[in-house]
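seq as requested:
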Amino acid sequence: MYPIELNADGISESGYQEVKAVYDAYVTLQNQTSSMTEEQKIRCIYDYILANTHFYGYTIEESIESENSHYIGYALTHHTAWCSAFSALFYLFGTANGLEVTIDEDHPKHANNTVMVNGELRHMDLMWDSCAGYSKYYLTKECSDQKEHSYVR
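C-alpha cells:
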C-alpha cells in the first residue's frame, strides 16, 4: 500500500504513477543502503539513478515534450531527464540516506551535485555521466565545467 490518498477530485493516472515511482525508488534505496558505508551509499544511489534514467537530449522539435524531463517523477516513469531531475533525484535519495548533498547550480542552465565524502566535498554530474556512459564526473575534486561537455544524439 502506498501513502497516497485520493482527494474528492482524484489524481491523474500519470500523476499517481510518478508519485508511486518516486516512492518505490525511495523504498528500494532505503532497503539496499541500510547497512552500507557512506561511499557505498553514494555509489548505490548513483548507479540506481543512471540505470533507471537517461539524458533526454534535446532539439527544437523536442523542447516542448521534453519540458517534463525536469521533474523527478517523470524522469523515473519515462526514464528520461535533464540535469535538474538528475541532480534532484540524487539530492532526494542521498539526503534521505543520511548523506550531505547539495545541488550545485553555479553553471548557467545546468545543475549537478556536491556530496561530502569522508569530510571532503566532492562533485558529481550524473547527467553528463549518463551521456558519457561511464563515471567521468563521479566524485571529482573539481566541478565539471559545462563548456567541456558536448553531446551528439
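The first strand starts at residue 54 and ends at 55.
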